[in-house]
Amino acid sequence: MSNAKQFDVVVIGGGPGGYIAAIRAAQLGFNTACIDEWANAKGGPAPGGTCTNVGCIPSKALLQSSEHYEHAGHGFKEHGIEVSGLSLNLAQLLKRKDGVVKANNDGILYLFKKNKVSFFHGRGTFAGAGEGGYTVNVSGQTTDTLQAKHVIVATGSNARELPGAAFDEKLILSNTGALAIDAVPANLGVIGAGVIGLEMGSVWRRLGAKVTVLEGLPTFLGAVDEQIAKEAQKLFTKQGLSINLGCKIGAITKGENNVTVEYADAKGEAQKATFDKLIVSIGRVPNTNGLGIESVGLKTDERGFIVVDDECRTNLPNVWAVGDVVRGPMLAHKAEEEGVAVAERIAGQHGHVNFNTIPWVIYTSPEIAWVGKTEQALKAEGVAYKAGTFPFMANGRARALGDTNGMVKFLADATTDEILGVHIIGPMASELISEAVVAMEFKASSEDIARICHAHPSLSEATKEAALAVDKRSLNF
Hints:
Blueprint lengths: L4 E8 L3 H12 L4 E5 L12 H6 L1 H20 L14 H25 L3 E4 L1 E8 L2 E7 L4 E10 L3 E3 L12 E2 L1 H4 L8 E5 L3 H12 L3 E5 L11 H14 L2 E3 L3 E7 L4 E6 L5 E6 L1 E4 L3 E3 L6 H4 L22 E3 L10 H15 L13 E3 L4 E6 L2 H7 L3 E7 L4 H6 L5 E7 L5 E8 L2 H13 L4 H6 L9 H10 L7
Parallel strand pairs: 1-2, 1-6, 2-3, 6-17, 8-15, 9-10, 9-15, 10-11
Antiparallel strand pairs: 4-5, 5-6, 7-16, 12-13, 13-14, 18-19, 19-22, 20-21, 21-22
C-alpha cells in the first residue's frame, strides 16, 4: 500500500514482551514500530501492558504499602518504636500506586524515543498479507496503516471469568478491580489460591479485611514444592487468611452491595458465604481480541493460544508471537526473554530462552520463589536426588530483621550433584533466587554454591547453608 508507513518490524502489544522486543529490534538496526492501546485515566498512552498497568507493578506497590501498614500496627513495637493514632489513608495509598504505574509508563515511552522506536497508540489489527509483508491497521487513539516485513504478536492475556459471574469490577473483581477497591471491605472473598489471589488477599487482609479464599484444587499451591507449599499454608493461615481447598463453586449471586457464593466444600457439603467484594483469580486466557488473525490465517490452538514452535515462529512466514499469548508460563520475564530472542533471530542471531531456569515468585509475606524441579516432580520422574534445607530462624540477618519464617531448599542430582531445583520461602526470596538461577544456568553443583564465600551477616548465607546441607554438613543448624 503506497500510503502505508513502512517498517522492518512491527510489534503488536506494548507489554513486557512487546516493548522489550521492539527496543531490541531497534538496537539491532531495524526500523521498528510498536502498537499499544492501553490508556491512562486521561486517555494518554500507557504502555507496559497488564504487568505495568494492572498486574506486577501496581500489585507490588500495594503489597509494599500494606506491609508498611502492618509493620506499623503490629511489628514496630518489638523494635522499640511506639506508634499511636495509626490510621489508613487508602486514597493516598492508591494514589501512590498510580504514581508508580505512571512512572513505569513514562519510562517505556522514554525508552522508545531513546531507541528510535515509532510508537502508535491504538489497537493493532492484521489487515492482509502480500509480497512486501503484512499490513497492520492501527485504530483507536490514532489511525494509521503500517506495512511490516516482520510482525511480532505480544498481545498478552486477560483474566478468566467464571461462567455466570462476569467481571463488573465493582462487586466481582478481576486483578484490575482488586487493585482499585476504594474502601477496605469488611469481608472479602477470593476464588482461586494462585499467585494473584494470594497476593491480593494478603494486601486487603493487612489493611483490615477478613479474607476467605476458596480454591478448587485439593492441594495448596500445587506447582510449588510440596514442603514449601505446606509451610506457606501454615504461615498464611496463621496470619489470618482463611484458606479452603477442594471447593466446587456453584451459583454466584450479586446483591445491591454484596456477592453471595454457593459452593460445596471438600467434604461435599453445601456452603454459602456472602462477601462485600469477590476477587476471581482462576487463571488467564490468551488475548487475540480484535487482532484480525482470520484475515491472514494465523493459527491458534484449542485453548486460543497462538501456535508457535520452540523459536516463537507462527505458521505464517515472518510472523512471531511471544509472552502470555503463546505456550509456556505466563510470566513477564519469560515474555521479555522471548521478545529479545525473537528480535535476535530476525537479525540472524541465535536467541535463546531456557524454560528450565525461569524463576517463579509469589510476592506474599513471606515471599515464595523457586527455579527448576520440585521434589514431587523428581519423584514422579524417577530421578535420584539429594535434598538440603536451611531455616531462616538460624540465619543471623533474618533474626536482626525480625523475619525468621521459612527456609531455603536445594535439590541436587544424587550422582553428579548438579543443582536440579532451588525453593525458597522467606524474606527477600525474590532476590535470593537469582543466585540459584545463575548457578543452574551454568550447570553448577550444590558443592559449588557451598564453596562460595557469602557475606556475613546476610540472608544469602541461608542459600550457602542449604547447599551445604545437601551433603549433610550445614555449619549453623
